[in-house]
Amino acid sequence: MTQPKRIAILGSTGSIGTQTLDVIRQHPEDFEVEVLTAQNNCDLLISQALEFKPNAVVIGNEANYQKVKEALIPQDIKVFAGQKAIAQVVEMDTIDVVLTALVGYSGLIPTVHAIKAGKQIALANKETLVVAGEIITALAKENGVNIYPVDSEHSAIFQCLVGEFHNPIEKIILTASGGPFRGKDRDYLQTVTREQALKHPNWDMGAKITIDSASLMNKGLEVIEAKWLFGLKTEQIEVVVHPQSIIHSLVQFEDGSIKAQLGPPDMRIPIQFALSYPHRLKSDFERFDFTKYPQLTFEQPDMKTFRNLQLAFDALAKGGNAPCVLNAANEIAVAAFLNREVGFLEMSDLIEETLAKASFVAHPSLEDYVASDAEARTITENLIKSKV
Prior knowledge:
This protein is an alpha/beta fold. The protein has helices at 15-26, 42-52, 65-72, 83-89, 108-116, 127-142, 152-161, 186-189, 194-197, 207-215, 217-229, 268-276, 307-318, 322-338, 346-357, 366-387, and strands spanning 5-10, 31-38, 56-59, 78-81, 97-100, 120-123, 147-149, 169-176, 237-241, 247-253, 258-262. The mean pLDDT is 95. This is 1-deoxy-D-xylulose 5-phosphate reductoisomerase.
Protein backbone atom coordinates (compact mmCIF):
# COMPACT_ATOMS: atom_id res chain seq x y z
CA MET A 1 0.00 0.00 0.00
CA THR A 2 1.37 3.39 -0.99
CA GLN A 3 -0.37 5.78 1.39
CA PRO A 4 -1.60 4.84 4.87
CA LYS A 5 -5.32 4.18 5.15
CA ARG A 6 -6.97 6.55 7.61
CA ILE A 7 -9.17 4.57 9.98
CA ALA A 8 -12.11 5.58 12.16
CA ILE A 9 -12.70 3.02 14.93
CA LEU A 10 -16.21 3.12 16.39
CA GLY A 11 -15.92 1.37 19.75
CA SER A 12 -12.16 1.65 20.20
CA THR A 13 -12.16 0.65 23.88
CA GLY A 14 -13.92 -2.70 23.38
CA SER A 15 -12.39 -6.06 22.52
CA ILE A 16 -12.40 -5.54 18.73
CA GLY A 17 -11.37 -1.90 19.03
CA THR A 18 -8.33 -2.61 21.19
CA GLN A 19 -7.24 -5.45 18.91
CA THR A 20 -7.64 -3.18 15.89
CA LEU A 21 -5.29 -0.71 17.52
CA ASP A 22 -2.85 -3.55 18.07
CA VAL A 23 -2.93 -4.24 14.32
CA ILE A 24 -2.36 -0.55 13.58
CA ARG A 25 0.44 -0.46 16.14
CA GLN A 26 2.22 -3.17 14.16
CA HIS A 27 1.74 -1.38 10.82
CA PRO A 28 2.18 2.37 11.36
CA GLU A 29 3.28 2.79 7.75
CA ASP A 30 0.02 1.26 6.46
CA PHE A 31 -2.64 2.68 8.79
CA GLU A 32 -3.34 5.93 10.62
CA VAL A 33 -5.95 6.47 13.30
CA GLU A 34 -8.25 9.30 12.27
CA VAL A 35 -11.14 8.92 14.73
CA LEU A 36 -11.71 7.01 17.97
CA THR A 37 -15.05 6.64 19.75
CA ALA A 38 -16.12 5.08 23.05
CA GLN A 39 -19.31 5.02 25.07
CA ASN A 40 -18.20 5.14 28.70
CA ASN A 41 -14.53 4.17 29.09
CA CYS A 42 -13.10 7.68 28.97
CA ASP A 43 -9.81 6.77 30.67
CA LEU A 44 -8.88 4.19 28.03
CA LEU A 45 -10.14 6.48 25.25
CA ILE A 46 -7.85 9.25 26.52
CA SER A 47 -4.90 6.85 26.71
CA GLN A 48 -5.54 5.61 23.15
CA ALA A 49 -5.86 9.16 21.82
CA LEU A 50 -2.62 10.26 23.47
CA GLU A 51 -0.83 7.32 21.82
CA PHE A 52 -2.34 7.45 18.33
CA LYS A 53 -3.04 11.20 17.98
CA PRO A 54 -6.31 10.98 16.02
CA ASN A 55 -7.92 13.99 14.40
CA ALA A 56 -11.00 13.59 16.62
CA VAL A 57 -12.52 11.50 19.39
CA VAL A 58 -16.13 11.06 20.49
CA ILE A 59 -17.28 10.02 23.94
CA GLY A 60 -20.82 8.70 23.74
CA ASN A 61 -21.67 9.39 27.38
CA GLU A 62 -21.94 13.16 27.51
CA ALA A 63 -21.30 13.17 31.27
CA ASN A 64 -17.64 12.32 30.49
CA TYR A 65 -17.17 15.04 27.88
CA GLN A 66 -15.41 17.57 30.09
CA LYS A 67 -12.87 15.06 31.37
CA VAL A 68 -11.96 13.92 27.84
CA LYS A 69 -11.88 17.47 26.52
CA GLU A 70 -9.54 18.71 29.24
CA ALA A 71 -7.15 15.82 28.61
CA LEU A 72 -7.04 16.10 24.81
CA ILE A 73 -7.63 19.69 23.76
CA PRO A 74 -3.99 20.61 24.65
CA GLN A 75 -2.95 17.86 22.18
CA ASP A 76 -4.95 19.57 19.40
CA ILE A 77 -7.38 16.62 19.23
CA LYS A 78 -11.01 17.56 18.57
CA VAL A 79 -13.42 16.20 21.18
CA PHE A 80 -17.15 15.60 20.67
CA ALA A 81 -19.84 13.89 22.73
CA GLY A 82 -23.13 12.08 22.29
CA GLN A 83 -24.67 9.50 19.97
CA LYS A 84 -25.40 12.02 17.22
CA ALA A 85 -21.74 13.03 17.18
CA ILE A 86 -20.71 9.39 16.57
CA ALA A 87 -23.03 9.26 13.56
CA GLN A 88 -21.75 12.60 12.24
CA VAL A 89 -18.01 12.15 12.75
CA VAL A 90 -17.85 9.24 10.28
CA GLU A 91 -18.64 11.69 7.48
CA MET A 92 -15.28 13.48 7.82
CA ASP A 93 -13.46 13.86 4.49
CA THR A 94 -10.21 12.58 6.00
CA ILE A 95 -11.57 9.07 6.74
CA ASP A 96 -10.91 6.18 4.35
CA VAL A 97 -12.29 3.22 6.32
CA VAL A 98 -14.81 3.08 9.16
CA LEU A 99 -14.42 0.04 11.41
CA THR A 100 -17.70 -0.41 13.25
CA ALA A 101 -17.12 -2.28 16.50
CA LEU A 102 -20.03 -0.82 18.45
CA VAL A 103 -22.13 -3.27 20.46
CA GLY A 104 -25.57 -4.21 19.19
CA TYR A 105 -28.17 -1.95 17.58
CA SER A 106 -26.11 1.16 18.35
CA GLY A 107 -23.96 0.43 15.28
CA LEU A 108 -26.80 0.83 12.76
CA ILE A 109 -27.20 4.60 12.37
CA PRO A 110 -23.44 5.45 12.33
CA THR A 111 -22.92 2.75 9.68
CA VAL A 112 -25.73 4.23 7.57
CA HIS A 113 -24.09 7.68 7.81
CA ALA A 114 -20.68 6.25 6.90
CA ILE A 115 -22.04 4.44 3.84
CA LYS A 116 -23.90 7.53 2.66
CA ALA A 117 -20.62 9.44 2.98
CA GLY A 118 -18.93 6.86 0.72
CA LYS A 119 -16.65 5.37 3.39
CA GLN A 120 -15.47 1.78 3.07
CA ILE A 121 -16.79 -0.33 5.96
CA ALA A 122 -14.94 -2.91 8.05
CA LEU A 123 -17.90 -4.50 9.81
CA ALA A 124 -17.52 -6.01 13.25
CA ASN A 125 -21.05 -4.99 14.28
CA LYS A 126 -23.11 -7.89 12.90
CA GLU A 127 -26.32 -6.41 14.31
CA THR A 128 -26.27 -3.72 11.61
CA LEU A 129 -26.98 -6.37 8.96
CA VAL A 130 -29.21 -8.41 11.27
CA VAL A 131 -31.48 -5.42 11.87
CA ALA A 132 -31.53 -3.84 8.41
CA GLY A 133 -29.57 -6.05 6.01
CA GLU A 134 -31.66 -5.32 2.94
CA ILE A 135 -31.40 -1.55 3.35
CA ILE A 136 -27.70 -1.60 4.27
CA THR A 137 -26.64 -3.75 1.32
CA ALA A 138 -28.72 -1.69 -1.13
CA LEU A 139 -27.28 1.52 0.30
CA ALA A 140 -23.73 0.18 -0.02
CA LYS A 141 -24.31 -0.75 -3.65
CA GLU A 142 -25.85 2.64 -4.39
CA ASN A 143 -22.86 4.48 -2.90
CA GLY A 144 -20.13 2.20 -4.28
CA VAL A 145 -19.12 1.12 -0.77
CA ASN A 146 -17.53 -2.23 0.04
CA ILE A 147 -18.39 -3.96 3.31
CA TYR A 148 -15.46 -6.05 4.55
CA PRO A 149 -16.42 -8.57 7.26
CA VAL A 150 -14.43 -8.62 10.50
CA ASP A 151 -16.19 -11.51 12.27
CA SER A 152 -13.84 -14.48 12.00
CA GLU A 153 -16.53 -16.66 10.39
CA HIS A 154 -17.53 -14.15 7.74
CA SER A 155 -13.93 -13.18 7.10
CA ALA A 156 -13.26 -16.89 6.51
CA ILE A 157 -16.08 -17.05 3.93
CA PHE A 158 -14.79 -13.87 2.28
CA GLN A 159 -11.25 -15.23 2.13
CA CYS A 160 -12.51 -18.51 0.61
CA LEU A 161 -14.34 -16.50 -2.07
CA VAL A 162 -11.32 -14.45 -3.18
CA GLY A 163 -10.73 -15.55 -6.76
CA GLU A 164 -14.09 -17.37 -6.80
CA PHE A 165 -16.53 -14.47 -7.10
CA HIS A 166 -17.69 -15.69 -10.54
CA ASN A 167 -18.44 -19.20 -9.18
CA PRO A 168 -21.86 -19.68 -7.57
CA ILE A 169 -21.97 -20.80 -3.95
CA GLU A 170 -23.87 -24.02 -3.23
CA LYS A 171 -23.77 -23.41 0.51
CA ILE A 172 -21.67 -21.96 3.29
CA ILE A 173 -20.88 -23.70 6.56
CA LEU A 174 -20.44 -21.46 9.60
CA THR A 175 -18.49 -23.08 12.41
CA ALA A 176 -19.40 -22.62 16.07
CA SER A 177 -17.30 -23.51 19.09
CA GLY A 178 -20.42 -24.59 20.97
CA GLY A 179 -19.53 -22.25 23.82
CA PRO A 180 -18.96 -23.23 27.47
CA PHE A 181 -22.14 -25.37 27.64
CA ARG A 182 -21.67 -27.59 24.62
CA GLY A 183 -23.24 -30.99 25.25
CA LYS A 184 -25.19 -29.84 28.31
CA ASP A 185 -28.92 -30.50 28.64
CA ARG A 186 -31.76 -28.20 29.68
CA ASP A 187 -31.68 -29.45 33.28
CA TYR A 188 -28.08 -28.31 33.57
CA LEU A 189 -28.78 -24.98 31.87
CA GLN A 190 -31.61 -24.19 34.29
CA THR A 191 -29.08 -23.31 36.99
CA VAL A 192 -26.05 -21.90 35.14
CA THR A 193 -24.73 -18.62 36.46
CA ARG A 194 -23.58 -15.40 34.86
CA GLU A 195 -20.00 -16.28 35.76
CA GLN A 196 -20.18 -19.70 34.11
CA ALA A 197 -21.65 -18.24 30.92
CA LEU A 198 -18.90 -15.63 30.68
CA LYS A 199 -16.14 -18.28 30.46
CA HIS A 200 -15.75 -18.89 26.74
CA PRO A 201 -13.41 -21.81 25.98
CA ASN A 202 -11.57 -20.25 23.01
CA TRP A 203 -12.22 -16.53 22.52
CA ASP A 204 -11.71 -13.43 24.67
CA MET A 205 -14.68 -11.17 23.98
CA GLY A 206 -16.95 -8.61 25.60
CA ALA A 207 -19.72 -9.69 27.99
CA LYS A 208 -22.64 -9.38 25.57
CA ILE A 209 -21.11 -11.38 22.72
CA THR A 210 -19.80 -13.99 25.18
CA ILE A 211 -23.33 -14.61 26.50
CA ASP A 212 -24.59 -14.71 22.90
CA SER A 213 -21.96 -17.36 22.15
CA ALA A 214 -23.01 -19.42 25.17
CA SER A 215 -26.66 -19.35 24.06
CA LEU A 216 -25.80 -19.83 20.34
CA MET A 217 -27.57 -16.55 19.55
CA ASN A 218 -24.25 -15.21 18.29
CA LYS A 219 -24.28 -17.95 15.65
CA GLY A 220 -27.88 -17.14 14.84
CA LEU A 221 -27.00 -13.49 14.28
CA GLU A 222 -24.08 -14.60 12.10
CA VAL A 223 -26.45 -16.70 9.98
CA ILE A 224 -28.56 -13.61 9.29
CA GLU A 225 -25.48 -11.47 8.65
CA ALA A 226 -24.14 -14.06 6.19
CA LYS A 227 -27.36 -13.99 4.19
CA TRP A 228 -26.88 -10.29 3.43
CA LEU A 229 -23.10 -10.23 3.11
CA PHE A 230 -23.01 -13.00 0.53
CA GLY A 231 -26.45 -12.79 -1.08
CA LEU A 232 -27.62 -16.22 0.11
CA LYS A 233 -30.92 -17.99 0.69
CA THR A 234 -31.66 -19.34 4.15
CA GLU A 235 -31.30 -22.93 2.96
CA GLN A 236 -27.75 -22.18 1.70
CA ILE A 237 -26.49 -21.56 5.25
CA GLU A 238 -25.49 -24.39 7.55
CA VAL A 239 -24.03 -24.34 11.07
CA VAL A 240 -21.69 -27.02 12.41
CA VAL A 241 -20.15 -27.17 15.88
CA HIS A 242 -16.35 -27.29 15.74
CA PRO A 243 -15.04 -27.11 19.34
CA GLN A 244 -11.40 -26.38 18.45
CA SER A 245 -12.24 -23.09 16.61
CA ILE A 246 -9.46 -23.71 14.08
CA ILE A 247 -11.57 -23.92 10.91
CA HIS A 248 -13.32 -20.57 10.94
CA SER A 249 -15.86 -21.41 8.21
CA LEU A 250 -16.19 -23.14 4.84
CA VAL A 251 -17.67 -22.60 1.38
CA GLN A 252 -19.03 -25.40 -0.78
CA PHE A 253 -19.25 -24.77 -4.53
CA GLU A 254 -21.51 -26.30 -7.14
CA ASP A 255 -18.94 -28.91 -8.15
CA GLY A 256 -18.85 -30.25 -4.58
CA SER A 257 -15.46 -28.72 -3.71
CA ILE A 258 -15.15 -27.19 -0.25
CA LYS A 259 -12.72 -24.43 0.72
CA ALA A 260 -11.94 -23.67 4.35
CA GLN A 261 -9.98 -20.96 6.12
CA LEU A 262 -7.95 -22.10 9.13
CA GLY A 263 -5.89 -20.42 11.79
CA PRO A 264 -5.53 -19.93 15.53
CA PRO A 265 -8.44 -18.17 17.28
CA ASP A 266 -7.00 -14.64 17.02
CA MET A 267 -9.33 -11.82 15.97
CA ARG A 268 -6.42 -9.66 14.84
CA ILE A 269 -6.06 -11.82 11.71
CA PRO A 270 -9.52 -11.06 10.27
CA ILE A 271 -9.29 -7.45 11.46
CA GLN A 272 -6.01 -6.97 9.61
CA PHE A 273 -7.37 -8.64 6.46
CA ALA A 274 -10.43 -6.36 6.45
CA LEU A 275 -8.26 -3.26 6.78
CA SER A 276 -5.54 -4.29 4.31
CA TYR A 277 -7.60 -6.03 1.59
CA PRO A 278 -6.71 -6.83 -1.18
CA HIS A 279 -3.22 -7.10 0.37
CA ARG A 280 -2.00 -9.44 3.10
CA LEU A 281 0.42 -7.79 5.48
CA LYS A 282 3.17 -9.59 7.35
CA SER A 283 2.40 -10.13 11.02
CA ASP A 284 3.97 -11.68 14.09
CA PHE A 285 0.70 -13.34 15.16
CA GLU A 286 0.86 -16.93 16.39
CA ARG A 287 1.22 -19.54 13.64
CA PHE A 288 -0.98 -22.62 13.63
CA ASP A 289 0.74 -25.87 14.57
CA PHE A 290 -1.11 -28.92 13.21
CA THR A 291 0.72 -31.25 15.59
CA LYS A 292 -0.98 -29.57 18.56
CA TYR A 293 -4.38 -30.45 17.10
CA PRO A 294 -4.25 -34.12 16.05
CA GLN A 295 -8.05 -34.11 15.80
CA LEU A 296 -10.45 -31.52 14.42
CA THR A 297 -13.99 -32.59 15.29
CA PHE A 298 -17.46 -31.60 14.11
CA GLU A 299 -21.01 -32.16 15.33
CA GLN A 300 -24.53 -30.89 14.71
CA PRO A 301 -25.72 -28.00 16.89
CA ASP A 302 -28.39 -28.89 19.45
CA MET A 303 -31.10 -26.44 18.43
CA LYS A 304 -33.70 -27.96 20.76
CA THR A 305 -31.63 -27.18 23.83
CA PHE A 306 -30.08 -23.98 22.49
CA ARG A 307 -33.26 -22.58 20.96
CA ASN A 308 -31.83 -19.19 20.04
CA LEU A 309 -30.20 -20.59 16.91
CA GLN A 310 -33.52 -22.00 15.71
CA LEU A 311 -35.28 -18.71 16.55
CA ALA A 312 -32.73 -16.87 14.39
CA PHE A 313 -33.28 -19.23 11.45
CA ASP A 314 -37.05 -18.79 11.87
CA ALA A 315 -36.77 -15.00 11.95
CA LEU A 316 -34.60 -15.02 8.84
CA ALA A 317 -37.10 -17.25 7.01
CA LYS A 318 -39.99 -14.98 8.05
CA GLY A 319 -38.12 -11.89 6.86
CA GLY A 320 -39.33 -8.32 7.15
CA ASN A 321 -38.66 -6.81 10.55
CA ALA A 322 -38.52 -10.20 12.35
CA PRO A 323 -34.68 -10.25 12.62
CA CYS A 324 -34.79 -6.69 13.99
CA VAL A 325 -37.27 -7.78 16.68
CA LEU A 326 -35.14 -10.85 17.44
CA ASN A 327 -32.05 -8.70 17.94
CA ALA A 328 -33.77 -6.12 20.15
CA ALA A 329 -35.37 -8.77 22.34
CA ASN A 330 -32.03 -10.55 22.67
CA GLU A 331 -30.18 -7.40 23.72
CA ILE A 332 -32.70 -6.76 26.51
CA ALA A 333 -32.73 -10.44 27.54
CA VAL A 334 -28.93 -10.65 27.71
CA ALA A 335 -28.75 -7.46 29.78
CA ALA A 336 -31.34 -8.93 32.16
CA PHE A 337 -29.35 -12.18 32.45
CA LEU A 338 -26.14 -10.25 33.15
CA ASN A 339 -28.05 -8.33 35.84
CA ARG A 340 -29.27 -11.66 37.31
CA GLU A 341 -32.93 -10.77 36.61
CA VAL A 342 -33.64 -13.83 34.45
CA GLY A 343 -32.20 -17.31 34.05
CA PHE A 344 -30.17 -18.58 31.11
CA LEU A 345 -33.01 -20.51 29.47
CA GLU A 346 -35.48 -17.70 30.08
CA MET A 347 -33.65 -15.57 27.50
CA SER A 348 -34.99 -17.78 24.70
CA ASP A 349 -38.50 -17.65 26.18
CA LEU A 350 -38.40 -13.86 26.23
CA ILE A 351 -37.20 -13.65 22.63
CA GLU A 352 -39.85 -16.09 21.42
CA GLU A 353 -42.66 -14.25 23.25
CA THR A 354 -41.48 -10.90 21.89
CA LEU A 355 -41.40 -12.24 18.33
CA ALA A 356 -45.00 -13.43 18.80
CA LYS A 357 -46.23 -10.11 20.23
CA ALA A 358 -44.34 -7.53 18.14
CA SER A 359 -45.92 -5.93 15.07
CA PHE A 360 -44.81 -7.57 11.82
CA VAL A 361 -43.74 -5.35 8.91
CA ALA A 362 -43.10 -7.25 5.69
CA HIS A 363 -41.23 -4.49 3.84
CA PRO A 364 -39.78 -2.15 6.47
CA SER A 365 -38.14 1.22 5.87
CA LEU A 366 -35.29 2.47 8.05
CA GLU A 367 -37.87 4.33 10.12
CA ASP A 368 -39.84 1.09 10.53
CA TYR A 369 -36.70 -0.66 11.80
CA VAL A 370 -36.14 2.09 14.37
CA ALA A 371 -39.77 1.79 15.51
CA SER A 372 -39.62 -2.02 15.58
CA ASP A 373 -36.49 -1.96 17.69
CA ALA A 374 -38.12 0.38 20.22
CA GLU A 375 -41.36 -1.64 20.32
CA ALA A 376 -39.56 -4.96 20.78
CA ARG A 377 -37.42 -3.59 23.62
CA THR A 378 -40.52 -2.33 25.43
CA ILE A 379 -42.29 -5.68 25.01
CA THR A 380 -39.29 -7.62 26.35
CA GLU A 381 -38.79 -5.23 29.27
CA ASN A 382 -42.47 -5.59 30.22
CA LEU A 383 -42.21 -9.38 30.02
CA ILE A 384 -39.22 -9.28 32.38
CA LYS A 385 -41.10 -7.04 34.84
CA SER A 386 -44.03 -9.44 34.81
CA LYS A 387 -41.72 -12.35 35.69
CA VAL A 388 -39.87 -10.63 38.54
